[in-house]
Every structure is written in C-alpha cells, then in structure tokens.
Design goal:
five-stranded parallel beta sheet; 9 helices; 183 residues
Length: 183
C-alpha cells in the first residue's frame, strides 16, 4: 500500500518496482513524472514562396522558432528573403545553427514528370531525412513554390508530421514575438 491515499500501487511484489527503483521515486520530495512511451511527431512549418516575397522578417522568424533545418522544396530556391546573396544567407543560417537542404536540387526530382512510384520513393526519402535530422520537439521548415506539388506532398506529410501552414501574418507574429509555440 502506498503512503499516498490516492495512489494505487501498480507494481506488487519485488519485481519491477525494485528493479527500476519506482518506490524511491514516489517517496522523493521533488516532483517526478513517468515519461510516456511515445513521442509526438515532429512539427513542420510549411511556407509558400508567395509569403516570402512579401518582405517579411524571416531572420526574426527563424530566431523565434529556432528550427533545426530548412527543407527547400522549391523549383527556384532563391534565398534573397534571408539575406542579399546566397553566401550571406548560408553564413546567417550557419550562425543560427540551422541546416539548409535544397531538396529538389540535390535529388534532381521533377514533380511534373514523376510517376506515382517515383513520387512515393521521393517523399518517403524526404520524410526519413526530416525525421533523422531533428531531435524531439525541434521544428523543421519546408518551403514550397508549387501549390500542386505541395498538395501532393501534403497527403503524405500530414501522416508523418504535425504540419502548420505559415501565413504572412503568422510569420510576422512569430518574428515580432507576438505568438507562442505549442509545446
């Protein structure tokens, strides 16, 4: 019987409770909680290139959300929304410990010519890469410039990640500290 009247002992005898010192945890004066045996899916912020073209404070957004990586799924991966040129953009991302992946450039994948099997293999590889990059509770960013390609990807991404579409208003709110992240 537990010394707490509202706690029911789940571990009878000397087996599991002794092995993992569970009874010591309950008698401790400090707060303690058992971790759940599953992790929440990684959060992926999806941003369409139209939002980036609106002269938003992307650097402030990155500072606010602290993403682990940016996965650029655009056909034309310009970085002028981060800094004046690619070298400065990469230097800024490096200084903020944000990895950048030009996904379509590295894979030479063509969304318009891909068969369903090629698309499935491609998006499966992207999902695996996103999962391998981030630790628990880290945010990833995906950039898109083709709405049809995004719609096709979204059907798979939503099954693997907690997707959040970022509008100009929400990007500005994060950049200026007016919005709180879900934890």
């Amino acid at each position: 019987m537990s010394k707490f009247s509202n706690v029911i002992s789940l571990f009878h005898g000397r087996g599991i409770a002794e092995k993992y010192k569970i009874s010591d945890k309950f008698s401790s004066t400090e707060a303690w909680q058992i971790s759940l045996p599953f992790n929440a899916p990684p959060m992926v912020f999806v941003i369409h290139s139209e939002v980036l073209a609106l002269n938003v404070d992307f650097k402030g957004f990155i500072e606010a959300v602290e993403p682990a990586a940016i996965f650029d799924m655009r056909k034309a991966p310009r970085l002028d929304f981060i800094s004046s040129n690619r070298i400065n953009s990469f230097a800024l991302l490096d200084s903020m410990f944000v990895k950048y992946f030009d996904v379509l450039g590295r894979t030479e994948f063509s969304s318009s010519r891909a068969s369903e099997a090629e698309f499935s293999a491609f998006i499966g590889d992207v999902c695996s890469r996103v999962k391998s990059i981030g630790a628990e509770n880290q945010i990833m960013i995906m950039l898109f410039d083709d709405s049809d390609f995004y719609s096709r990807c979204e059907r798979v991404l939503v099954k693997n990640f907690d997707l959040e579409k970022i509008s100009e208003i929400s990007l500005a709110a994060f950049a200026h500290g007016d919005s709180k992240l879900r934890m």
